[in-house]
Amino acid sequence: MLRYLTLAHWHRCCNALWRYSPKSVPIELLNRQVQFKVCDIYLPDPQTVMGKLYGNCVLEGRVLNVTESDVGAKFAVVEVRELENPVVVAVERITDVV
Predict the structure, then answer these.
(1) How high is the pLDDT of residue 27?
(2) Residues 42 and 80 grouped into a single domain
(3) pLDDT digit string (tens) for 5-42?
(4) Do 67 and 49 share a structural domain?
(5) How many helices and strands (H and E) does the chain possess?
(6) What is the mean pLDDT of residues 81-87?
(7) CA distances from residue 50 to 22, 37, 38, 47, 55 in whole angstroms, order as listed
(8) Contact (Cβ atoms closer than 8 angstroms) between residue 78 and residue 61
(9) Where are the beta strands (DSSP E) in 1-98?
(10) Considering the entire predicted model, what is its pTM?
(11) In whole angstroms, what is the distance from residue 17 CA to residue 98 CA?
(12) Are 86 and 80 in contact (CB under 8 A)?
């Protein structure tokens, strides 16, 4: 038979706007190493997590196109081998490959 523990009160304060209803967690999960997909993270949003983990990593790619906005800002459409779709980057943030 599974034993359950009630989540701590502090967890309710993670997001004041979120309506929290206390739930139970199987005690077997406490202090265990687990795996999950980044896209399954509920809070904070997955983009925030990825930014914190990999925000300073340098990507390399090939410029497919350069465009300019109505206010004069220039952007490059860059194909990155590891990504399925091209990304858009401000031209001033791009450095040449050495």
Answers:
(1) 83
(2) no
(3) 333 433 444 444 444 445 666 788 888 999 999 999 99
(4) no
(5) 1, 5
(6) 94
(7) 29, 12, 8, 5, 7
(8) yes
(9) 4-6, 24-26, 62-68, 74-79, 87-90
(10) 0.60
(11) 48
(12) yes
